[in-house]
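A brief tutorial aside. Many learners find it easier to grasp structure tokens once they have seen a single protein encoded end to end. The record that follows does exactly this for NADH-quinone oxidoreductase subunit E. Read the sequence first, then the structure, and try to relate runs of similar tokens to stretches of the chain.
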Amino acid sequence: MEQPIAWEESLARDLISDKAELEGPLLPILHALQERFGYVDPRAVGLIASALNVSRAEVFGTLSFYKDFKKQKPLGRTIKLCLAEACQARGANALAARFEQASGCRIDGGFSGGVEIETVYCLGNCALGPNALYDGEIFGALTDEALAALHARAARDGVAR
């Protein structure tokens, strides 16, 4: 995974152009922009709409509908904690509550040490829940200690940016 870079309109136009001829190009374009820049800059909405000959509202609606798309530059690193049914059955809710209590980092809306933990619903590793995703890697069978260590790693990685 490439490190996100600062927003650059010419690069955004190239990324959009590369995917514009795909069937159903909107989601691949949004994913490409987020992967490259770490978020989908609001300035991209008009560029995408123009390239695909759709309304800005359609692009913004899609961008807003999917929780994984960020509309502003990330403030730090992100850990995605699964709270789907299988992970809940294996203690993910209790794990999240204990983590919030111990670290003071509010899940889904708080930062601690430059790290955000957001919830997702299924990482596809159900038998080994609770699970988290960080930097493209799934971490299964999380314990309090493992989640705290993952948070510490993400904080160190954020400093190294």
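Self-check: The radius of gyration is 17 Å. If you spotted this yourself, you are ready for the next section.
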